[in-house]
Amino acid sequence: MQVPDVVRDVFERIDGVAVLDILLISLAIYWLLLLLRGTSAWTVLRGVSLLLVGAFLLARFFDLQVVNWMLENMVTGLVIGVIVVFQPEIRRVLDRLGRTGWQLALVRQDHEYTVDVAVRAAARLARQRYGALIVFERETGLQEVIDTGVEL
Description:
- The mean pLDDT is 81.
- Helix content is 73%, strand content 0%.
- 3% of the residues are buried.
- It is an all-alpha fold.
- It has helices spanning 3-13, 16-36, 40-61, 65-73, 75-85, 87-100, 111-127, 143-148.
- It has 3 domains: 1-36; 40-102; 108-152, no CATH class.
- It contains 8 helices and no strands.
């Protein structure tokens, strides 16, 4: 079967329910990725995903039958492993969902505003002759440290 035949076959089978199904799953995955972005779970998820995709591609390219079989049959174990590894993040997501409902605050702050606030705070601290440690989060967020930290 040629590629155009496969594409035509797919479009012949798609109906409104299939489009809705694909849209809902896509939105759920997108929402989950937005919630994980900026956490240490994001870097772990990215690393595991790259490892699995690389193993899958190598197994297909070199026709490694045992590796293919292992990758295809380890889905249940991966689901349990993901739940165990990402338990703190799952708890945090459910906690946030319980507090905010469906209106999620996923918009990133404006960088100019953040810098302006930090500059004003540093100037005020300098006038009062106080020292401070100011931390800016980058790729990996600080919410996990904040949640588990000790207030001074």
